[in-house]
Amino acid sequence: MITRRKLLKAGAATGLAYGLGGLAAPAIAQGAKIKLGYVSPQTGPLASFGESDAYNIASFLATEAGKNFEIIVKDSQSNPNRAADVAKELILSDEINLMLVASTPENTNPVATTCEAEGIPCISTKAPWQPWFIGQQGNPGDPESWKPFDFAYHYFWGLEDVIAVFTNMWAQLDTNKKVGGLFPNDGDGNAWGDKVVGFPPVLEKLGFGLTDTGRYQNLTDDFSAQINAFKQAETEILTGVMIPPDLTTFWNQAKQQGIKPKIASIGKALLFPQTVEALGDAGHNLSTEVWWTPSHPFKSSLTGETAADVATAFTTATGRPWTQPIGFAHALFELAVDVMKRAEDVTDGDAVAKAIGETKLDTLVGPIAWNNANLPPFAQKNVAKTPLVGGQWRLKSGGGYDLVVVENGQAPNIPLGGKIEALG
């Protein structure tokens, strides 16, 4: 396959230096801006992940470093096929120098896979590393066949972290240890429910009984089968990884049909204040994984702002409550600046990929470095881990919700804001 990278290299070798439509390398040498492609779900059922993108991008471009960059944003519309299509547009038509992508395997994987095929460096985030790495392998079921990537790099936490956070929260309450699992038929759901890398083997080892009713389709409108199974099993713990619309549907039906768990820890959907607010008072004490909050003890390498500063600035500018993706989108641009400062040639995909792999940067979401020993050997080149804690949504007396950190066993440097409480 003739990739854009191969064409650029061939052109440079013959003294032409022409890419797919211009003098890419000489233009940047003459002061043209570095082009970043950015793919995220601006619309569709995953749009909550991209809620802060416009703010993050505007804030970055207003910095001194941001003046050296052009950002071309594409909406994946929460659709994996479109994510791959717009990634190809960014590479072939817009001739970007670096791809940035975020928000669930349905968005990150098709973009990263496209970049890998085209020889374009890519940094992704906001998806657990297992469905990101394993999901892009030719044979996900055969670990012996898994290979590292040359151009795709990812930073986030893993299933081992969210499982530890959730089970640590549950251990703080007196329950019958019977768990109901809600795992959809998507990248996250298949990974979280996997009998090898997901929740089932760990729960069994820790003495929890899991009722898993199988993979349901996203945007389902009837969870009666799952609710009945959980009632029959007398489950006191609910877990899973749901998109926001499905969590609203499920929780309202669960309340109507009389299911009364002691704790419900749901990934993905409960990250966002608007999802909880849509439940009215019924969202009180629902729990979730927590990647980033204003109380996280980290600063931006771009601006020196603390997590609290960035969260406050977002609310002041938009009138909306802070949301977890703010920190991770901010860190994408921190990494882009740091990488391009160190790359020997920003127009050479190999040079940029080399600079990504050599990154050691303190960011708004914590230290980021690839080739870290706290991962399985097969993932060390391409994955950098970030810390994870657990939190509960608490109804405020004046309306709205606060997200309170109640579990930090994996990251004790992130302060607790309270103790776990049972659902009413």
Automatic annotation (TrEMBL):
Annotated GO biological process: amino acid transport
Signal peptide positions on this chain: none
Protein name (database record): ABC transporter substrate-binding protein
Pfam families per the UniProt record, alphabetical: Peripla_BP_6
This protein's UniProt keywords: Amino-acid transport, Signal, Transport
InterPro entries, sorted: BCAA_transport, Leu-bd, Peripla_BP_I, TAT_signal
Domain Leucine-binding protein: 33-373
Provenance organism: Agrobacterium albertimagni
Family: Belongs to the leucine-binding protein family.
